[in-house]
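16S rRNA aminocarboxypropyltransferase
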Amino acid sequence: MGTYGLHVRYEGDDDPKKCSARKLARFELAELHNSTRATPPGIVLNPFAEQALSPADGVGTGARHDRLVALDCSWETAEREAFDLEGIHRSLPFLVAANPVNYGTAFQLNTVEAFAGALCILGERDQAEEILSKFTWGHTFLELNEEPLRRYAECSDSTEVVAVQEDYLADE
Ligand SMILES: C[S@@+](CC[C@H](N)C(=O)[O-])C[C@H]1O[C@@H](n2cnc3c(N)ncnc32)[C@H](O)[C@@H]1O
């Protein structure tokens, strides 16, 4: 068991065969919830959130949440309103997807990549490696993003994370 409980509001409108959240649940590494009401509060990974995730959100800092929550749905339906989940909402800074569906795309991570990126930023690299180990391409996510993940994890707050992100956006 990792430091963070991983929870997924499971919408079920994406190809179930390719769904990374379902696979995590099969290995009992994440819990799926079929309604918003049934989803427990936590750090909600929301690409529309104003504030970027930073180490300041971690449990070690006295922050309230020891759960990460993702919304597993198709990117077609991932609109701002869909993220009506309880907790503190955080976006992930610049990271590149390594999964075969969206390889090389910045910011549009799949659920296991979003969890793994968040865990690395929060200093939980072992748990990130554990969940990625279930995917053939999983380690590629850490390789592609090695430098930004290390730098984000060294930041003290979201302002610093956003400043680091600028270095990568400039190269886009
Ligand atoms: C839209 S779903 C797509 C899931 C895909 N069907 C799969 O098999 O994993 C991906 C979820 O990961 C999280 N996520 C992805 N990229 C993110 C980002 N840049 N910032 C915050 N959360 C992100 C969000 O919870 C988002 O809803």
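thats it. Residues 5-169 form one domain. Strands lie at 5-10, 31-33, 42-45, 67-72, 87-90. bye
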